[in-house]
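Lab notebook, bench 4. Still working through the backlog of constructs that have no structural model yet. Next entry is a single chain of 176 residues. Request: give me the C-alpha coordinates for it.
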Amino acid sequence: MADSKRLLADALTGLMECKPLDQVRVAEIASAAGVSKQTFYHHFSDKYHLMECCFRDMFAAPFKRMGTLAPFDECYIEFLQLCHQRKTFLRNAFTSQDVNSLYRVMHRALRDAFGARVRVHGVLDEGETGFCLDFFSKGCAGCTRHWFDQGMDFEDAELVGLIRQCIPVGVARYFE
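Model written out:
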Protein backbone atom coordinates (compact mmCIF):
# COMPACT_ATOMS: atom_id res chain seq x y z
CA MET A 1 0.00 0.00 0.00
CA ALA A 2 1.37 3.45 -0.93
CA ASP A 3 2.46 5.73 1.91
CA SER A 4 -0.51 8.10 1.77
CA LYS A 5 -2.90 5.16 1.40
CA ARG A 6 -1.32 3.50 4.45
CA LEU A 7 -1.58 6.74 6.43
CA LEU A 8 -5.27 7.03 5.52
CA ALA A 9 -5.91 3.37 6.41
CA ASP A 10 -4.15 3.79 9.75
CA ALA A 11 -6.10 6.99 10.42
CA LEU A 12 -9.44 5.31 9.73
CA THR A 13 -8.68 2.29 11.89
CA GLY A 14 -7.53 4.62 14.68
CA LEU A 15 -10.69 6.71 14.46
CA MET A 16 -12.83 3.57 14.42
CA GLU A 17 -11.33 2.57 17.76
CA CYS A 18 -13.47 5.37 19.18
CA LYS A 19 -16.59 5.60 17.02
CA PRO A 20 -18.66 3.90 14.31
CA LEU A 21 -17.78 4.33 10.66
CA ASP A 22 -20.90 6.36 9.89
CA GLN A 23 -19.78 8.98 12.45
CA VAL A 24 -16.33 9.36 10.90
CA ARG A 25 -15.97 12.16 8.35
CA VAL A 26 -13.56 12.17 5.43
CA ALA A 27 -12.11 15.46 6.69
CA GLU A 28 -11.28 13.75 10.03
CA ILE A 29 -9.58 10.86 8.26
CA ALA A 30 -7.51 13.19 6.09
CA SER A 31 -6.57 15.36 9.07
CA ALA A 32 -5.59 12.37 11.21
CA ALA A 33 -3.48 11.06 8.31
CA GLY A 34 -1.85 14.46 7.77
CA VAL A 35 -2.99 14.66 4.15
CA SER A 36 -5.52 16.76 2.24
CA LYS A 37 -9.04 15.71 1.35
CA GLN A 38 -7.90 15.89 -2.25
CA THR A 39 -5.30 13.21 -1.50
CA PHE A 40 -8.00 11.10 0.15
CA TYR A 41 -10.21 11.32 -2.96
CA HIS A 42 -7.23 10.61 -5.20
CA HIS A 43 -7.06 7.14 -3.61
CA PHE A 44 -10.61 6.40 -2.45
CA SER A 45 -14.11 7.22 -3.67
CA ASP A 46 -15.44 7.51 -0.10
CA LYS A 47 -14.84 6.29 3.46
CA TYR A 48 -16.61 3.00 2.69
CA HIS A 49 -14.11 2.29 -0.09
CA LEU A 50 -11.30 2.96 2.41
CA MET A 51 -13.02 0.70 4.98
CA GLU A 52 -13.17 -2.07 2.37
CA CYS A 53 -9.45 -1.67 1.65
CA CYS A 54 -8.69 -1.78 5.38
CA PHE A 55 -10.83 -4.90 5.84
CA ARG A 56 -9.29 -6.71 2.87
CA ASP A 57 -5.80 -5.77 4.05
CA MET A 58 -6.45 -6.91 7.63
CA PHE A 59 -7.85 -10.25 6.50
CA ALA A 60 -5.71 -10.82 3.41
CA ALA A 61 -3.90 -13.88 4.75
CA PRO A 62 -6.93 -16.05 5.59
CA PHE A 63 -8.77 -14.99 2.42
CA LYS A 64 -5.72 -15.89 0.35
CA ARG A 65 -5.50 -19.30 2.03
CA MET A 66 -9.26 -19.86 1.51
CA GLY A 67 -8.58 -19.49 -2.21
CA THR A 68 -6.19 -22.44 -2.17
CA LEU A 69 -6.41 -26.13 -1.39
CA ALA A 70 -5.69 -25.42 2.29
CA PRO A 71 -8.20 -27.04 4.67
CA PHE A 72 -11.30 -24.84 4.73
CA ASP A 73 -11.87 -25.24 8.48
CA GLU A 74 -8.33 -24.06 9.31
CA CYS A 75 -8.67 -21.06 7.00
CA TYR A 76 -12.02 -19.99 8.42
CA ILE A 77 -10.80 -20.43 12.00
CA GLU A 78 -7.81 -18.21 11.12
CA PHE A 79 -10.31 -15.62 9.82
CA LEU A 80 -12.38 -15.84 13.03
CA GLN A 81 -9.28 -15.48 15.20
CA LEU A 82 -8.44 -12.26 13.36
CA CYS A 83 -12.04 -11.15 13.95
CA HIS A 84 -11.39 -11.50 17.69
CA GLN A 85 -8.26 -9.35 17.35
CA ARG A 86 -10.02 -6.70 15.24
CA LYS A 87 -13.24 -6.71 17.27
CA THR A 88 -13.51 -2.94 17.74
CA PHE A 89 -12.92 -2.17 14.07
CA LEU A 90 -15.51 -4.77 13.05
CA ARG A 91 -18.07 -3.60 15.62
CA ASN A 92 -17.76 -0.02 14.41
CA ALA A 93 -17.89 -1.07 10.76
CA PHE A 94 -20.86 -3.42 11.19
CA THR A 95 -23.01 -0.60 12.58
CA SER A 96 -23.11 1.01 9.14
CA GLN A 97 -26.26 0.47 7.13
CA ASP A 98 -24.76 2.03 4.00
CA VAL A 99 -25.06 0.18 0.70
CA ASN A 100 -21.31 -0.45 1.05
CA SER A 101 -21.69 -2.02 4.49
CA LEU A 102 -19.17 -4.41 6.00
CA TYR A 103 -21.58 -7.31 5.41
CA ARG A 104 -21.43 -6.67 1.66
CA VAL A 105 -17.66 -6.19 1.76
CA MET A 106 -17.25 -9.45 3.67
CA HIS A 107 -19.55 -11.24 1.23
CA ARG A 108 -17.51 -10.03 -1.75
CA ALA A 109 -14.20 -10.94 -0.09
CA LEU A 110 -15.45 -14.44 0.74
CA ARG A 111 -16.92 -14.84 -2.74
CA ASP A 112 -13.59 -13.85 -4.28
CA ALA A 113 -11.75 -16.38 -2.09
CA PHE A 114 -14.25 -19.17 -2.75
CA GLY A 115 -14.15 -18.44 -6.49
CA ALA A 116 -10.36 -18.76 -6.43
CA ARG A 117 -10.75 -22.03 -4.52
CA VAL A 118 -12.87 -23.67 -7.24
CA ARG A 119 -10.66 -22.28 -10.00
CA VAL A 120 -7.71 -24.12 -8.40
CA HIS A 121 -9.67 -27.25 -9.31
CA GLY A 122 -9.98 -26.04 -12.90
CA VAL A 123 -13.66 -25.16 -12.50
CA LEU A 124 -15.09 -21.82 -13.57
CA ASP A 125 -16.91 -19.95 -10.81
CA GLU A 126 -19.96 -19.15 -12.93
CA GLY A 127 -23.30 -20.74 -13.75
CA GLU A 128 -24.54 -23.24 -11.18
CA THR A 129 -21.18 -23.26 -9.40
CA GLY A 130 -21.22 -19.46 -9.23
CA PHE A 131 -24.76 -19.48 -7.85
CA CYS A 132 -23.73 -21.94 -5.12
CA LEU A 133 -20.66 -19.85 -4.28
CA ASP A 134 -22.76 -16.66 -4.08
CA PHE A 135 -25.26 -18.40 -1.82
CA PHE A 136 -22.57 -19.86 0.42
CA SER A 137 -20.51 -16.67 0.68
CA LYS A 138 -23.60 -14.65 1.64
CA GLY A 139 -24.44 -17.28 4.23
CA CYS A 140 -20.90 -17.25 5.63
CA ALA A 141 -20.93 -13.45 5.85
CA GLY A 142 -24.36 -13.51 7.52
CA CYS A 143 -23.39 -16.25 10.00
CA THR A 144 -20.14 -14.48 10.83
CA ARG A 145 -21.97 -11.20 11.40
CA HIS A 146 -24.59 -12.94 13.57
CA TRP A 147 -21.80 -14.64 15.56
CA PHE A 148 -20.13 -11.26 15.96
CA ASP A 149 -23.36 -9.44 16.94
CA GLN A 150 -24.16 -12.14 19.51
CA GLY A 151 -20.87 -11.55 21.28
CA MET A 152 -18.91 -14.29 19.53
CA ASP A 153 -20.81 -16.80 21.68
CA PHE A 154 -19.78 -19.93 19.75
CA GLU A 155 -16.28 -21.31 19.88
CA ASP A 156 -14.52 -20.72 16.55
CA ALA A 157 -14.42 -24.43 15.66
CA GLU A 158 -18.09 -24.83 16.60
CA LEU A 159 -19.09 -21.97 14.28
CA VAL A 160 -17.01 -23.40 11.44
CA GLY A 161 -18.69 -26.76 12.01
CA LEU A 162 -22.10 -25.12 11.65
CA ILE A 163 -20.98 -23.25 8.53
CA ARG A 164 -19.60 -26.48 7.07
CA GLN A 165 -23.07 -28.04 7.40
CA CYS A 166 -24.41 -25.27 5.13
CA ILE A 167 -22.03 -25.78 2.21
CA PRO A 168 -24.19 -26.24 -0.91
CA VAL A 169 -24.00 -29.73 -2.41
CA GLY A 170 -22.99 -28.23 -5.77
CA VAL A 171 -19.65 -27.00 -4.36
CA ALA A 172 -19.08 -29.15 -1.27
CA ARG A 173 -16.26 -31.18 -2.87
CA TYR A 174 -14.16 -27.99 -3.17
CA PHE A 175 -14.34 -27.34 0.59
CA GLU A 176 -13.19 -30.74 1.85
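Notes after review: The chain has a mean pLDDT of 95. The CA atoms of residues 136 and 166 lie 7 Å apart. Flag for follow-up if needed.
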